[in-house]
Amino acid sequence: MRDVEGDNATIITFLLLLALLELHPLVSLFTDSVLALKVLEHRMTIWFLSLVWHGLAIVMIFVLLKMKHSASQFRGTLASYFGVFVLFQLVGVLLQLLDRGTVPSVIPTVLLFVWLSWSCCVFGYVFGSAFSIKFYQGLVVAFLVNTVSYVIAFVVIGPIISDEILTIVRQEVGS
Q: Which one, of 28, 8, 38, lies nearest residue 168 by Cα?
């Protein structure tokens, strides 16, 4: 990770791939869920939310690297960070290809849990290497960068999200 240079073409390619893959959000894994089907009707809003989320993550990564006096690793960190996200989304697409009729319903759930755990570990490794910190500290940084950037993005995009999605989510959480 420390040796990754991350040229502009790689970063732009990963960003474009991620933007395309984000058009098919993770919630589509649960096509048997009424909530998932309703949320998929608002795919563009979700896509815009993910773009703002990743944009904020870029800013946070830059600021953290600058504070750590490791700004020279910014491009390599971005290439690794977005490469993991692209891989994460591709695995999600592959999980969707599972034939739900022949596979017991618990298997996709277990695969999703393993997939999420694996991605957290990879992000922890990326941040641990980028900031020259221990793996568990990298996990914490990865969690904070992704959570904080997502929450801020949701606060910014929240007013744009239609009342229908918010009503659906409230009904689903309430039941």
A: 38
DSSP string, 126-169: HHHHHTT--HHHHHHHHHHHHHHHHHHHHHHHTTTS-HHHHHHH
| Residue 51 CA: distances (Å) to CA of 46, 87, 96, 113 | 9, 17, 22, 24
Q: What are phi and psi of 9, to 5 degrees?
A: -60, -40
Task: Judge if pTM exceeds 0.85.
Answer: no
Report pLDDT digits (tens) over 77-133: 888 888 887 887 777 777 766 655 566 667 767 877 888 788 888 889 988 888 889
Show me where the domains of the chain are located.
8-167
Q: What phi-psi label fits residue 69: left (phi over 0), alpha (psi between -120 and 50 degrees) or beta?
A: left
The pLDDT value recorded for residue 1 is: 47
CA angle 40, 43, 47 (to 5 degrees): 140
CA gap 148, 79 in Å, rounded: 20
